[in-house]
């Protein structure tokens, strides 16, 4: 029989993934990580209650936030929505060289007090601060796993060495390496960069050896279909969904965009058809 912790981890993962094994998760740690100016395109979304209410109504599977925002928006995160609390971050106010490290800003206990279903932490693989972030992740993962909580790694290769060796951080060879490192370090879910094609993303999925890999949204694409196409390719490549921030909250009408994303992720609908069905075209 499974140990108590394994049962807890499996149950909690199911709060994000539907029966098809896929999930669409809303990310909102940008006010901290990039600064409140990220909300400039649709300023009312700077209020977490406003945007979280919309994404939940639209049918999102989960939300990812830092602890303080989870407290502010908690009434809007309905019980059928998975709550992922991220415990590491950095501000854009830091000197540039120090932005290759995320620091721990809260503890596993805080996430549990807030009702988290999963705990997340970032590792910048290949950065000069890789060692610190690996240890941070190990501590968080070991503690969370002991208590039956799944752990999500934002596996982001970056730093001067990565650029020097691979040209860009989205090169599939290094994204694949980051995903593998995440799987080997005990992540239960991995969030990482788009590699530019279905074929290369499939390699990332393979490298993760069965640990679900989700797309990290990235900067907003003006044309909604363009983003839907990326997500479609992620699913075709064997990816398990997407964790999306700016492409949702920087849109005036995030609800229809989310519904279109859900069609692509859970029904494998053609991106243009999904966009049409939701009135985006
Ligand atoms: P986006 O969909 O807006 O890219 O959000 C995903 C995310 O990982 C956020 O959680 C985080 O704040 C941001 O991207 C990190 O972006 P950067 O690449 O600038 O570090």
Instruction: State the end-to-end distance.
Output: 51 Å
Q: Which cofactors or ions or other ligands sit in this model?
A: 1,6-di-O-phosphono-beta-D-fructofuranose
Please write the string of helix (H) and strand (E) elements: HEHHEHEEEHEHEHHEHEHEHHH
Proportion in helices: 40-55%
Largest sheet: 8 strands, parallel, barrel
General form: globular
Could you characterize the architecture of this molecule?
The chain is globular and about 45 Å long. With 281 residues, it is an alpha/beta fold. α9 links the parallel β8 and β9. It is built from 13 helices and 10 strands. α3 crosses α12 (254-267). The longest helix has 17 residues, at 130-146. The strands form 2 sheets. It has an 8-stranded parallel barrel with strand order 1-2-3-6-7-8-9-10, surrounded by 6 helices. A two-stranded antiparallel sheet has the order 4-5. The structure holds 1,6-di-O-phosphono-beta-D-fructofuranose.
Entry summary:
By secondary structure, the chain is of the alpha/beta class. Helix content is 43%, strand content 15%. It has helices at residues 4-13, 30-33, 48-58, 67-72, 108-113, 130-146, 160-166, 172-184, 198-207, 224-236, 246-249, 254-267, 271-277; strands spanning 23-28, 62-65, 82-86, 88-89, 103-104, 118-123, 151-155, 189-192, 213-216, 241-244.
What's the arrangement of secondary structure elements?
Blueprint: H1 4-13, E1 23-28, H2 30-33, H3 48-58, E2 62-65, H4 67-72, E3 82-86, E4 88-89, E5 103-104, H5 108-113, E6 118-123, H6 130-146, E7 151-155, H7 160-166, H8 172-184, E8 189-192, H9 198-207, E9 213-216, H10 224-236, E10 241-244, H11 246-249, H12 254-267, H13 271-277
Helix pairs in contact: 3-12, 8-9, 10-12, 10-13, 12-13
Bound molecules: 1,6-di-O-phosphono-beta-D-fructofuranose.
The site of 1,6-di-O-phosphono-beta-D-fructofuranose has 13 residues, from helix 2, strand 10 and helix 11.
């Amino acid at each position: 029989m499974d140990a108590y912790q394994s049962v807890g981890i499996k149950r909690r993962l199911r709060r994000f993934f539907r029966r098809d094994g896929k999930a669409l998760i809303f990310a909102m740690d940008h006010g901290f990580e990039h600064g409140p100016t990220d909300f400039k395109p649709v300023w009312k979304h700077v209020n977490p209650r406003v945007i979280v209410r919309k994404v939940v109504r639209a049918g999102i599977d989960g939300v990812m936030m830092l602890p303080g925002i989870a407290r502010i928006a908690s009434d809007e995160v309905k019980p059928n929505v998975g709550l992922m609390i991220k415990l590491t971050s950095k501000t854009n106010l830091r000197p540039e060289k120090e932005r290759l490290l995320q620091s721990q800003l809260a503890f596993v206990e805080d996430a549990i007090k807030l009702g988290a279903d999963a705990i997340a932490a970032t590792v910048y693989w290949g950065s000069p601060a890789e060692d610190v972030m690996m240890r941070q992740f190990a501590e968080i993962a070991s503690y969370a796993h002991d208590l039956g909580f799944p752990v999500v790694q934002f596996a982001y290769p970056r730093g001067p060495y990565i650029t020097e060796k691979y040209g860009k951080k989205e090169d599939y060879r290094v994204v694949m390496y980051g995903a593998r490192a995440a799987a080997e370090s005990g992540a239960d879910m991995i969030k990482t960069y788009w590699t530019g094609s279905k074929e290369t993303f499939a390699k990332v999925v393979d490298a993760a050896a069965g640990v679900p890999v989700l797309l990290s949204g990235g900067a907003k694409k003006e044309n909604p279909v363009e983003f839907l196409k990326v997500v479609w390719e992620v699913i075709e490549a064997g990816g398990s969904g997407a964790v999306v921030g700016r492409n949702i909250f920087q849109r005036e009408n995030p609800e229809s965009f989310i519904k279109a994303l859900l069609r692509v992720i859970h029904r494998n609908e053609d991106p243009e058809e999904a966009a049409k069905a939701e009135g985006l075209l």
